[in-house]
Automatic annotation (TrEMBL):
UniProt-listed Pfam families: HNH (PF01844)
Taxonomic lineage from the root: Bacteria, Bacillati, Bacillota, Bacilli, Lactobacillales
Superkingdom of source: Bacteria
Protein name per UniProt: HNH endonuclease
Source organism of the structure: Pilibacter termitis
CDD domains, per the entry: HNHc
Amino acid sequence: MLTIEQIIEIRKSKLHDRGYEIVFPEDKIIWLTKRRTIAGLLILIKYHTASEADLVGANNRLQTIKKILNGKIDSSWIQDRYGDANKPFSELWTEEGFSVVHAEGLQGNRQYVLDPEDHEKLFNINAKSSRLQLSVQDKNNILRLQGGKCNFCGSYLFTKNSINKYTFSKDRVTLEFDHRIPIDRGGENIFENYQALCHYCNKSKRQMCFVCTETCSDSCALVNPSNSHIVLATGEDISDRLTN
């Protein structure tokens, strides 16, 4: 079983061209590609179960971890609180490929779980290294196919760096690339499984996919809005919110 106290350092990756490494004794390394997933994983390693309340300042878990790791990590890499508190946990499997992390319960009362018996599996990088990294050309092609718009609401999309920080409803125009069928729900990591969404729609889709118990398919509006207007998770017709 791993403990936070065993960590030697948390650093920018030396073995890969991106991401971060949590270094344990005997040169054992957990590789993370997202900075925000560091906090989620550290909480799960220490406490085994966690909730979004742990990342919004509702308790002192983050501060406890920062105190233990003082001098072993750039303090700015762990925020005092996270506005979008599900991502540091959910991206442990959707982005980092850690299938041993799972969620229990419904949105708003969800617990994230990491069994100590599965700690050794965190050192396996196979799932993550096999994920497709979209090229600039791929991203441009996806945007071109969608007319430069969010595949759900139809808002014109822009990269974060090109958006004025004072832009009204910034979440509605911020470009994000989404797996139509989430990887953790059996989706393939291929070009055809990507779509461009605004941050607002992508976040809404992610939350809906969390609670869905149906099998993902083209018959769901969240997978292919040009083919269906029905959200399988709820049976809701969202044709009034789609532009396709």
